[in-house]
Design a protein that fits this description.
The protein is an alpha/beta fold. It has helices at about 20-30, 35-40, 45-50, 85-95, 115-125, 145-150, 170-175, 180-190, 210-220, 250-260, and strands spanning about 35, 55, 60, 70-75, 100-105, 130-135, 160, 195-205, 225-230, 265-270. The strands form 2 sheets. Strands 1-2-5-6-7-8-9-10 form an 8-stranded mixed beta sheet. The structure holds iron/sulfur cluster (2 copies).
């Protein structure tokens, strides 16, 4: 059944004010994209007010067509060689200690965009001593090992790749993705990179409890360390409809279950997104 009315627990005012506008102004002056705006994230007010944002690199046009995502689909432009310096300036201006960087899927590039990703991190690290990076990548469909070998040299603090939903919903929600391929990437990342791995999934697309349980087990089977679980919210009228608004108590249940399964960092709530409070030590 499609859900149209937003339940009370998902209604909240959009915070704004000084730091929100500073973050917004800095991003626009530096002509940087964020997943916060491109994915219509409901936490933008809170995160930007706190001076954090998740940078979207390699353009804002994706070669995939996930039906839960509002990022534009099409033929992307070549990577912008000025982007690493602009992200570095952002980190300096916002005095960032922790930065989550994500990207659109770049199936058009031989390395999936990994070298550009590394260049952004290297340049930013030169500008801000001690800054830590959480990277959130696509599945690097045909080039996983090559991409990970490049990203290894960027020394990320956390490597993230989102499993997004249960396998039975992949053809509907993530037609360009492959559940096993995503698990394989997380496994290879754990083996090749010297850092924790992280994944995220959305609830409310019609998945069953036993399927959620199976995804959490599959993630632990590839030694995934961190997990975020949040409510799917339809970002645009062209995106999939919400099937269920999952009650906050159920998110608490999944948080407890994930901890039981051995995840060392867990965030699960209706507003949780993969980068939400990513900088916190534990959850
Ligand atoms: S949760 Fe992540 S994507 Fe959403 S506003 Fe915060 S930093 Fe941006
Ligand atoms: S890969 Fe899917 S979720 Fe990621 S930006 Fe592209 S369309 Fe959106």
């Amino acid at each position: 059944m499609v859900q149209n009315r937003l339940p009370e627990w998902l209604r909240r005012p959009m915070p704004a004010g000084g730091q929100f506008y500073d973050t917004s102004k800095t991003l626009s002056e530096l002509k940087l994209e964020t997943i916060c705006t491109n994915a219509c994230c409901p936490n933008r007010g809170e995160c930007w007010k706190n001076g954090t944002a998740t940078v979207l690199i390699l353009g804002n046009i994706c070669t995939r067509n996930c039906r839960f995502c509002s990022v534009a689909k099409g033929k992307p432009l070549p990577p912008d060689p000025t982007e690493p310096a602009r992200v570095a300036q952002l980190a300096v201006k916002l005095n960032l200690k922790y930065l989550v960087i994500t990207c659109v899927d770049r199936d058009d590039l031989p390395d999936g965009g990994a070298a550009h990703f590394r260049d952004v991190i290297t340049e930013t690290r030169k500008a801000v001593e001690g800054i830590r990076f959480e990277i959130l990548t696509g599945d690097f469909r045909n080039t996983q090992e090559q991409a990970l070998a490049i990203l290894e040299t960027a020394l990320p603090f956390v490597f993230g790749h989102n499993i997004e939903t249960v396998p039975s919903l992949y053809s509907k929600a993530r037609p360009g993705g492959n559940y096993q391929l995503s698990l394989t990437l997380l496994k290879k990342a754990k083996d090749m990179l010297n850092c924790p791995t992280k994944s995220a999934m959305m609830l409310g697309l019609g998945e069953k409890d036993e399927e959620i349980e199976a995804v959490l087990s599959d993630l632990r089977a590839v030694n995934c360390d961190r997990v975020s679980i949040g409510q799917y919210l339809r970002p645009s009228k062209d995106s999939l409809e919400v099937v269920e608004y999952v009650h906050p108590d159920k998110f608490d249940f999944w948080a407890a279950r994930a901890k039981q399964l051995g995840f060392t960092w867990v965030m699960s709530s209706p507003f949780t997104r993969s980068s939400y409070h990513a900088e916190t030590e534990t959850a």
